[in-house]
Design goal:
This protein has about 250 residues and is α/β, with parallel strands linked by helices. About 40% of the residues lie in helices and about 15% in strands. The chain has nine helices and seven strands; from the N terminus they run ααβαβαββαβαβααβα.
Length: about 250
Amino acid sequence: MLSYHDPDFIDSDEGRPLRIVSEYLAPLRAFNVGGVTATVVFFGSARLRADGPLGRYIEEATELARLVTEWSRTLGGEQLVVCSGGGPGIMEAANHGAALAGGRSVGLNIGLPQEQRPNSWITPGLCFEFHYFFMRKLWFAHLARALIAFPGGFGTFDELFEILTLAQTRKLDRSIPVLLYGSAFWKEVVNFEALVRHGTIAAEDLQLFEFVDEPRAALERLKACISFAPAAQPRPAFAKSRCAAR
């Protein structure tokens, strides 16, 4: 048996590098085949329900994803595709909104013991199952033209601060607008001003994100902030990154 057809080898410790690179190359191929070059990423809790205390965010995430998709379909060039973590809650709402507008959407799902199962609104062929969190987060960042973070927990914080750190350290080859949806929630759970006061971030780092509270207002900010300048590499590329040294 060829080694790459041997499941015992592929699933072994020695096969881990192959599994990791597969979680890069398989989505790369699918995005290139599907012509997906730019995404608007929705983060938010898998635990939110429409009938729960934060249920209004389900409706508003659905509406915003619908508006983004409708706007994208009026653009003559590069199309923006809604992308979520592929699971329930806010993620499902985002994929649902894109479908309501007749558009495609991406789901970057990850296998977890609970909560995380692919939702039914993800476009066939654009639903991906990840084992490694870091490879999933790479794909969140790689094609993102904007990020919208709805209320969430540890996972949302992890994903949000990954993008903010990349922006702060200038590891991105483009500006990614970051919208924190639900100012009351975000200002309660994260004291950004205190980080400035304690000297752990700079005052200008507060310009890396802004707060929004209504779907149409969020859409207008996206329209104002997203850049459609021609990229040096218009399609997803293998091992493309920004080098700090110039």
